[in-house]
Specification:
heterodimer, A: 71 residues, mainly alpha, B: 465 residues, Amidase signature (AS) enzymes, 11-stranded mixed beta sheet, 17 strands, globular
């Protein structure tokens, strides 16, 4: 993945999509970090997950503080 | 600087005045902080007022609390009433002053502690070195040409240098544990959700933890006990009973199953990191080896989630004033704001799967010993380092052993080697070892740390004067 990833082109397109003005002088550093992230993404992609593997954050509709919780 | 425990005992016994101790500490900071650049603000008026309140309580026959008169300071991402919370940035300088102390600061105040100021850090906590371009690098008190570690580098340097016996920091990927190891002090990152983070400047909320630093286990325990308590304002806090540790420090390690981590934790570092683990393992009689499966993937997941959450958090300033960010962090935040959603969601699913696999380890063991940092403190400004025959960037790799642990919120306590030179640490520089437990088992970690301290294996090495 990382060898084919054109980080500078991606950075320009994604920045435009999210309304982030990207100064040309910042582009090399941004591309460097995107390539690093791509390498990390490849590591993550390498772990087999199934449809039953939910994401870590779990939404909670509401909480009640129990007695004795040190409040 | 005497310990927090001895300070509080002397105050309670009427043998010392908090006001006198505060003045001593303020004078010490004025005389010595320039060498390590730990403080970004000294709160002298506040310290004098808090110390006077402690002395007044004693005079009136009231108990000022378990940390009576104990000086401390906090990473400058904690709100201190009346002061603007910088979070290591110049961007925040223009914001209003905090209207209230952070929850943990209120806890320490209620325990009688005396706040001396705010401490240097990597900008917005995005770093492992505290080479802050705006406020200058914090310097390691053991060798001021070297990094203090980060992002809570000022917190570690202030304690290691003896300017305060206690400090507070934050740890998203290793920011308490890395500087603890490099500066040779004790630090705990509790279980995710244990201590309230309200009133602190978040970095990546999925992983943000807060915790204390100290030069001995009793002081770390005193602080940790004082910091516990439920807070409705932190959405990630788990409301559990207060589980104090100070009374358990003499309990010993009999019955505890302790093992050394292999795999990811047995490579990616220099010899001194693994020698330090062996010193601790020998002292504990730990001969078993376990593997925390998929730790490398957990680290990668934490890397991506951190980057994206940080980028999102700072998007308004990234859009309008990117050049006001520290060049050390700016491009990472910009890149983080652009990550594909698929990478993030995949990272969150891997995080959960990795947690499920890792927690099984604790069916077999109670404590896992890992290196805390891959090497001793590098020189300030060093970019690259050789590890396992490969030249790699020195800074991100400082978190190689801490990041997989905070990714899934396990409690971890760093103990410094009493004699790092005997373990082969270059120039005898400090290095620590990470003790990792199952969720909510901080008590076990404190028992082990105290046993190592009693055995003379763990201690904060003296600073060369």
């Amino acid at each position: 993945m990382s060898t084919e990833f054109d980080a500078e082109a991606y950075a320009k397109a994604a920045a435009a999509a999210v309304g982030l003005p990207l100064e040309p002088r910042h582009l090399p550093g941004v591309a460097f970090n995107l390539k690093l992230a791509a390498r990390m993404a490849a590591v993550v992609e390498g772990m087999p997950v199934t449809p039953a593997d939910e994401a870590a954050p779990v939404y909670v509709a509401g909480r009640e503080m129990p007695k004795g919780s040190g409040a | 600087m005497i310990s927090a425990a001895k300070t509080a005992a002397a105050i309670h016994a009427g043998k010392a005045k908090a006001a006198h101790l505060a003045e001593q500490a303020l004078a010490d900071i004025a005389a010595r902080d320039a060498t390590c650049n730990a403080f970004t603000e000294v709160t002298a008026a506040r310290a004098r007022a808090e110390a006077a309140a402690v002395d007044a309580a004693i005079a009136a026959g009231r108990d000022p609390g378990p940390l009576a008169g104990v000086p401390y300071a906090v990473k400058n991402l904690f709100d201190l009433e009346g002061i603007t919370t910088l979070a290591g940035s110049i961007i925040e300088k223009g914001r209003p002053a905090a209207s209230r102390d952070a929850f943990l600061v209120r806890k320490l105040k209620a325990a009688g502690a005396v706040c001396l100021g705010a401490l240097n850090m990597d900008e917005y906590a995005y770093g492992f070195t505290t080479e802050n371009s705006h406020y200058g690098p914090s310097r390691n008190p053991h060798d001021t040409t070297r990094m203090a570690g980060g992002s809570s580098g000022g917190s570690a340097a202030a304690v290691a240098a003896g300017m305060v016996p206690l400090s507070l920091g934050s740890d998203t990927n290793g920011s308490i544990r890395v500087p603890s190891s490099l500066c040779g002090i004790f630090g705990i990152k509790p279980t995710y959700g244990r201590l309230s983070r309200s009133g602190s400047y978040l970095f990546a909320g999925s992983f943000d933890h807060l915790g204390p630093f100290a030069r001995d286990v009793a002081d770390l325990a005193l602080a940790y006990d004082a910091l516990q308590g439920a807070d409705a304002e932190d959405p990630a806090q788990q409301w559990r009973p207060v589980e104090p540790v100070s009374g358990l420090l003499g309990a010993g390690t009999t019955g505890l199953r302790i093992a050394v981590a292999g795999g990811h934790f047995a490579r990616n570092g220099h010899a001194e990191a693994f020698a330090a683990v062996q010193v601790v393992a020998r002292a504990l009689g730990a001969t078993a080896r376990v593997e925390i499966p998929e730790a490398g993937r957990g680290r990668a997941a934490a890397f991506l989630i951190t980057m994206a959450e940080g980028g999102n958090l700072h998007m308004p300033d990234l859009r309008t004033r990117p050049d006001d960010f520290d060049p050390m962090t700016r491009d990472r935040f910009l890149a983080g704001a652009l990550l594909p959603a698929h990478w993030l969601q995949q990272a969150q699913r891997v995080r959960a799967a990795y947690r499920a696999a890792a927690l099984k380890v604790f069916d077999e063991v109670d404590v896992v010993i890992t290196p805390a940092t891959p090497y001793v403190a590098p020189p300030i400004g060093q970019e690259m380092i050789e590890v396992d025959g490969e030249r790699i960037p020195v800074r991100p790799n400082l978190g190689v052993f801490t990041q997989p642990i905070s990714c899934i919120g396990l409690p971890a306590l760093v103990v410094p080697l009493a004699d790092p030179g005997a373990a082969g640490a270059p120039n005898g520089l400090p290095i620590g070892v990470q003790l990792v437990g199952a969720p909510w088992k901080e008590q076990t970690l404190f028992r082990v740390a105290a046993a190592l301290e009693r055995a003379g294996v763990a201690a904060s090495p003296a600073i060369p004067r």
